[in-house]
Write a structure and sequence with these properties.
about 250 residues, alpha/beta, Cation-dependent Mannose-6-phosphate Receptor, Chain A, 9-stranded mixed sheet, two-stranded parallel sheet, about 25% helix
């Protein structure tokens, strides 16, 4: 999820008396040259280094919010919600992904809730507990399949596989023809295909494999059906001397 030119994302609070704004960078430190807080919450001074000093989210309550796309100096109270390095992330079923950050001012923490959506939508935040917060981020980053490629109109893994397979076939056939024609000086045509004899045998090998699998699967199925059957019940009736069988004698015929 690439931050905008300002270097940070903005989310608005949904319920008072929450801070009016949240500023955050989902995947890296916040850039101290783009946003600063000269009057931080007294419980902890913000320590911005050259790359943000590990700060990844700020809560801000004041009269003048930052303008989109411009470096910002917060004029009123603010505090950190969490610090970088990487957080703990848990998949939220098919609905999205939740990444948790801690280490903020006054033991604050924040969950970034990536909600699956076709496009990046309006971001909002709210207070979940005394010092815990949630920022909702609707967009493709919350969709299954590696950053929501399918939802964003990108290629799925199946499409990539088919493309790579097609390229491999073209390279194999074209490269084999070129090698046999240029190096082995074979005449252009079907006979110049690489491993031609093997490919001629392939249909027969596939047929033999299918026949083998069918016979053994059928034998296993019959054995499974007869697993509880008494072998004596399926034995042929014994023949008496003279050609009469036991059943005929029992019936008096």
């Amino acid at each position: 999820m690439t931050p905008p030119a300002s270097g940070y994302f903005t989310a608005s609070a949904t319920t008072p008396p929450m801070p009016a704004w949240f500023y955050f960078s989902a995947c890296s430190n916040m850039d101290a040259t783009q946003i600063s807080c000269p009057n931080p919450d007294r419980r902890r001074q913000l320590q911005f280094g050259p790359t943000g000093g590990g700060v990844m989210a700020i809560q801000y309550w004041g009269e003048t919010p930052c303008e989109a796309g411009a470096p910002c100096t917060l004029q009123d109270s603010c505090a950190t919600l969490g610090t970088f390095p990487p957080p703990t992330c848990i998949a939220n079923g098919t609905a999205g992904l939740i990444c948790s950050y801690s280490g903020g001012s006054g033991a604050r923490s924040v969950d970034l809730d990536f909600v699956c959506a076709q496009s990046l939508g309006s971001m909002t935040g709210y207070q979940k507990g005394d010092t815990s917060y949630v920022i909702n981020i609707p967009g493709p980053a919350g969709c299954p399949g590696g950053g929501g490629a399918a939802a964003a109109g990108g290629l799925s893994w199946g499409s990539l596989f088919l493309i790579l397979l097609s390229v491999a076939i073209v390279v194999y056939v074209g490269g084999g023809l070129a090698y046999n024609i240029k190096v082995k000086e074979m005449e252009p045509g079907v006979d110049a295909i690489m491993h031609l004899e093997y490919w001629k045998q392939l249909p027969g090998l596939v047929k033999d494999g299918c026949d083998f699998s069918y016979k053994h699967t059928k034998a296993a199925y019959v054995a499974f059906q007869n697993r509880n059957r008494d072998p004596a019940l399926s034995a042929p009736i014994a023949k008496a001397e003279g050609g009469d069988d036991e059943m005929s004698r029992a019936l008096g015929s």
